[in-house]
Amino acid sequence: MPTTEPERVPGPAAARFPVVDPATGEAFDEAPHQQPDELDTVIDRAQRAWSGWRTDPAARTTALRTAADAVEAAGEDLARSLTREQGKPLAESYAEVARTAARLRYFADLAPRTRPIDDGRPVRSEIRWRSLGPVAAIVPWNFPLQLAAARFAPALAAGNTVVLKPSPFTPLATRMLGSVLTAVLPEDVLTVVTGREPLGARLVSHPGIRHVTFTGSVSTGRAVARAAAASLARVTLELGGNDAAVLLDDVDVEGIADRLFWAAFRNCGQVCMAVKRLYVPARLHADVVETLAQRARTVAVGPGLDPTTELGPVNNAPQLARVEDLTRQALADGARAAAGGHRLDGPGYFFAPTVLVDVPPDSPVVTREQFGPVLPVLPYRSLDEAVEAANGTGFGLGGSVWGTDLDRAEAVAERLDCGTAWVNHHAELSLAQPFAGVKDSGVGVAGGPWGLYGNLQPFVLHRPPEA
């Protein structure tokens, strides 16, 4: 996830704050700047709503299915609002709205299972499950709706209530989503709050919050964990990645080129599990570089509302500056841009899709999460060298291996130190699978039944056997 602090927006405290269109660099709307002391009332109401919401699983299922229908019905408005403030092509915003509805529908149909304990004792014991209470969900600006649903859908399905805070860079579509959902959910089951810091810090440290789910940078995630520890709230942290892709010497370069390019550049590279480093056999390096550079030079970059656009802008000015700085430093250290390497002229936060070669392996553009449309391509001499380099950062979210011999590729993928590894594709997830990182990439599990149980507390009940 972005290593800039997504919760900070420049400017004095005010009742409202500006929202910028990244395609123009100009403010086009405002959002409420709620104050930290307002959270006491919000969380108190969420606590009161929890007492009813947690008691009726059948009603929750019906409500969440209805919520999914409502999201789909509002799809056009949600998608256009999302593109305007986030920058991604409109088709991708429609897809994000669809995934938001699908996630609600998926979790609506999940329910925890009561499990008997067979331990040989003459006592009947069962594991049952209880919800936690109010949950704080803080989500970033790259997939505001999809990541919000990844947090609130399992929490609501488990019987919790949710206070959702989007990034100040992308508050509008989330506020709209909140309005759509609160129209069909019981009052105060889901509340959206918007504002600059210290609103987020107060939310995660509030004693009424029992679970904090956060997606964002490692540094902010550590701060979230420290703040939540004061009240011993549970934390689930998805802290981004620096995913490596390893190409094997039998890879079909042209056959994988489009999939590989979009695995790195989709959403302008602003994807936590995008390919951010590419390791290529030395004898294939020039061919791979030219194949990817050609796509980078010809992809249509522009405003997301333009139907011809394939790649939109970087979302915000601080992130654009970060991408520029990392690229400039790599070039100063001897790297060469086979494509791009610079900001595009004109308004907005546009950066040319960039393929870098001759990059020093210890360059920050390799070791850090650049979170933008920049891909360093690094040659390797031996497979052991490639695997060691792929595992050589503090991140461990995802990784991939690409080759013709699938058994061999799978064996290499098994060696990657990450939470999810793919063969011949990257960053493809289903709603039913767990999603978790290792090392600095996070704590806890999202997705599938694991995401549901992460929002529940086991309760063990013992009783004597029948006489």
Describe this structure in words.
By secondary structure, this protein is of the alpha/beta class. The chain contains 15 helices and 18 strands. The protein has helices at 39-53, 57-73, 75-86, 90-108, 144-157, 172-182, 199-205, 218-229, 253-265, 285-298, 317-332, 364-367, 383-390, 406-413, 448-453, and strands at residues 16-21, 26-32, 115-117, 124-131, 134-138, 161-165, 190-192, 211-215, 234-238, 243-247, 275-281, 336-339, 354-357, 374-380, 398-402, 420-423, 442-443, 456-463. The strands form 4 sheets. It has a 7-stranded mixed β-sheet, sandwiched between helices. α2 packs antiparallel against α4 (90-108). The chain is globular.
Largest sheet: 7 strands, mixed
Strand count: 18
Q: Can you tell me the residue ranges where pLDDT is under 50 for at least 5 consecutive residues?
A: 3-13
**How much β-strand is present in the residues?**
15-25%
End-to-end C-alpha gap: 58 Å
Radius of gyration: 23 Å
Overall shape: globular
Tally of contiguous helical segments = 15
Q: Tell me, rounded to a whole number, the average pLDDT.
A: 95
Proportion of residues in helical segments:
25-40%
- Please identify the structural class as seen in this structure: alpha/beta
- Largest sheet, order of strands side by side? 12-13-14-11-10-15-16
Entry keywords:
single chain; 467 residues; alpha/beta; 7-stranded mixed beta sheet; 6-stranded mixed beta sheet; 15 helices; disordered N terminus
Blueprint of the fold:
Elements: E1 16-21, E2 26-32, H1 39-53, H2 57-73, H3 75-86, H4 90-108, E3 115-117, E4 124-131, E5 134-138, H5 144-157, E6 161-165, H6 172-182, E7 190-192, H7 199-205, E8 211-215, H8 218-229, E9 234-238, E10 243-247, H9 253-265, E11 275-281, H10 285-298, H11 317-332, E12 336-339, E13 354-357, H12 364-367, E14 374-380, H13 383-390, E15 398-402, H14 406-413, E16 420-423, E17 442-443, H15 448-453, E18 456-463
Parallel strand pairs: 5-6, 5-8, 6-7, 8-9, 10-11, 10-15, 11-14, 13-14, 15-16
Antiparallel strand pairs: 1-2, 3-4, 4-18, 9-17, 12-13
Helix pairs in contact: 2-4, 3-4, 3-6, 4-5, 9-10
